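FAQ

Q: What does a record look like?
A: Structure on top, sequence underneath. For example:
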C-alpha cells in the first residue's frame, strides 16, 4: 500500500512539474512591449509603442486559413494574444461602453446568427467585441473577419486540444481512457478520478479551462482595457440577443446602483425560459448565477478571482456551476445577488453541441421562437421580483484530475 501511494505521489509530482513548464512557456506575455495594432482587410498591422512613444511600423502579418504544424499554430496564437490586433479601429472610435466576450469553438453557423443579432442592435458600435477561440478554424475565422459594425479583437486559448493533440491538456497518450485499461498496461492517471469515479475527458474540461483563462486574460491582459472599468458581457457562440440587450443592461446597472448595491452579477435571461407577457420590464433579483449573457465588472472580478482555488478545485466541469460555488464562499453580508432579465434579452439557439448528440443544427426554429415572443422592448424603467434561491453544493463531476486543478490555478498567475 505504501509503495502504491508513493507511485501515485511520484506520478502526480511529475504531472504538476509538466503543467508548471507549460504555464511558464506562456508567461513570457508578461514581458512583452506595449503595442498598438490595427487590422485592415484581413491584414494585421503592428505598431510598436515604447515608453517614449516612438512609433515603428511593422510589416503586415497575414492570417492563413490553416497551419502546417502545431508549432506554427502555437506561434501564431502567441503573436495574436501578445499583439492583440484590432479590427475596425479606424472605422469606429470613441469610448468603449461595453465589452462583449464570445467563447467560440467551431459552430460557425450559430456564430453567424449571433453576429447578425449583434449587428441589429442600436449603438453596437460603442462596444468592443472580443472573440475567444479554442480552435483555429478558417470558416469561423471568416465570420469574425467580416464583422464591420464595431471594433473586434480575437484571442486564442493557448492550452487547447488543437495545440496539444497528444499530451496534456489535450488527451495524453499515456493516460488510460477507461479504468479497465490498467489490466493491460500501466495507467499513470488511474487514481485521478472525479467524485463519481470517472477519468478525465479532455473535451469537457477544456470548456471550463477556456472560460477561466478568457476571464483572466480579458481583465488582466487586454491592453486597450487597462483603464476600462465597465461591464464585461460573456456570451457563447450559440447565443442570440434581442435588439434592446444593450439598453436593458444599462437599465439594470442603474437600477442596481440605487436599489441593490450588493448586486454583483447581471444576466440577460434564464436558459430556455421565454415569458414576455407582463414581464418585459421586470428583473429577478436572486442569489444565483445564470450563464445566459452573464455580465460583471473588474471590481467584481477582483473579488471573485481571490477565490480561484474554490473555482479550480470544485468537482464540476461547468464554469457556471463552479462560479456559483465561488459565490457561496464569499463572506459578505448581505449576500451578493444577481439581477436577471425576467423576459430574456438573450436566447440559447444551439440544438447540438457539447451537451447534445442531436445532428439537427439549424438554428432558425429557435430564432423564430425567440423573435415571436418579444414584445414591449426598450422599457423605460425596471421592476424587481425578489426570489430566494437555495444554493447547494451539488456538482456534476468531470473535474477530479489534479493536473487540471494545477493548470487552472496557474492561469491566475500568467
Amino acid at each position: 500500500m505504501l509503495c502504491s501511494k508513493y507511485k501515485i505521489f511520484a506520478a502526480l509530482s511529475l504531472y504538476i512539474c509538466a503543467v508548471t513548464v507549460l504555464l511558464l512557456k506562456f508567461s513570457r506575455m508578461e514581458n512583452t512591449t506595449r503595442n498598438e495594432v490595427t487590422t485592415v482587410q484581413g491584414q494585421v498591422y503592428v505598431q510598436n509603442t515604447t515608453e517614449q512613444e516612438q512609433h515603428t511600423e511593422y510589416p503586415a502579418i497575414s492570417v492563413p486559413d490553416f497551419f502546417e504544424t502545431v508549432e506554427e499554430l502555437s506561434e501564431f496564437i502567441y503573436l495574436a494574444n501578445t499583439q492583440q490586433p484590432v479590427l475596425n479601429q479606424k472605422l469606429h472610435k470613441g469610448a468603449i461602453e461595453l465589452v462583449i466576450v464570445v467563447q467560440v469553438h467551431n459552430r460557425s453557423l450559430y456564430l453567424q446568427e449571433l453576429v447578425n443579432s449583434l449587428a441589429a442592435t442600436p449603438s453596437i458600435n460603442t462596444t468592443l467585441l472580443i472573440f475567444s477561440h479554442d480552435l483555429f478554424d478558417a470558416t469561423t475565422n471568416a465570420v469574425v473577419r467580416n464583422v464591420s459594425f464595431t471594433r473586434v479583437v480575437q484571442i486564442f486559448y493557448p492550452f487547447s486540444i488543437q495545440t496539444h493533440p497528444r499530451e496534456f491538456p489535450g488527451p495524453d497518450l499515456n493516460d488510460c481512457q477507461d479504468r479497465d485499461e490498467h489490466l493491460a498496461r500501466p495507467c499513470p492517471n488511474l487514481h485521478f478520478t472525479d467524485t463519481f469515479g470517472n477519468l478525465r475527458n479532455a473535451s469537457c474540461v477544456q470548456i471550463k479551462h477556456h472560460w477561466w483563462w478568457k476571464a483572466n486574460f480579458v481583465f488582466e491582459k487586454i491592453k486597450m482595457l487597462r483603464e476600462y472599468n465597465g461591464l464585461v458581457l460573456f456570451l457563447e457562440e450559440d447565443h442570440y440577443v434581442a435588439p434592446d440587450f444593450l439598453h436593458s443592461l444599462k437599465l439594470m446597472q442603474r437600477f442596481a446602483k440605487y436599489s441593490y448595491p450588493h448586486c454583483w452579477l447581471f444576466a440577460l435571461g434564464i436558459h430556455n425560459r421565454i415569458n414576455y407577457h407582463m414581464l418585459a420590464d421586470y428583473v429577478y433579483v436572486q442569489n444565483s448565477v445564470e450563464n445566459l449573457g452573464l455580465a460583471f465588472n473588474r471590481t467584481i472580478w477582483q473579488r471573485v478571482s481571490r477565490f480561484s482555488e474554490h473555482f479550480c478545485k470544485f468537482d464540476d466541469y461547468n464554469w457556471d456551476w463552479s462560479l456559483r460555488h465561488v459565490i457561496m464562499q464569499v463572506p459578505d453580508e448581505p449576500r451578493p445577488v444577481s439581477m436577471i432579465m425576467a423576459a430574456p434579452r438573450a436566447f440559447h439557439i444551439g440544438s447540438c453541441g457539447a451537451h447534445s448528440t442531436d445532428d439537427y443544427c439549424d438554428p432558425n426554429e429557435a430564432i423564430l421562437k425567440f423573435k415571436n415572443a418579444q414584445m414591449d422592448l426598450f422599457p423605460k424603467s425596471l421592476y424587481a421580483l425578489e426570489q430566494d434561491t437555495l444554493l447547494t453544493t451539488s456538482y456534476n463531476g468531470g473535474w477530479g484530475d489534479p493536473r487540471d486543478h494545477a493548470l487552472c490555478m496557474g492561469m491566475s498567475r500568467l
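Q: Is there anything notable about this one?
A: The two ends are 38 Å apart (CA to CA).
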